[in-house]
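Show me any protein, keeping tokens residue-aligned.
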Amino acid sequence: MIRVMLPAHLRNLANTGSEVTVAIQGQATIASVLDALENQYPVLRGTLRDYATQERRAFVRFFVCSEDWSHLPAGTPLPDEITSGKEPFMVIGAIAGG
């Protein structure tokens, strides 16, 4: 089971707590975590990734072991700290403004 931490606006939308767990079949990658998350919480489809292209939304960031993995390919394998549940896969809502 992979732990996923969600920002407040997405946990409100999914009606869940700040942390959820998802089961991954096969290799754990950024894409497989997002697929499992969207399958478990269908209301999140389209909020993290574009429906058509599956590209990350501009104001969504993914952190793995305190590092920003937002710009890595979706097929990037996740480290053992994430797959073992020691560390969470973090979804962060970026803030912009002036």
In short: The chain has three helices and five strands. The chain has one domain: 2-93.
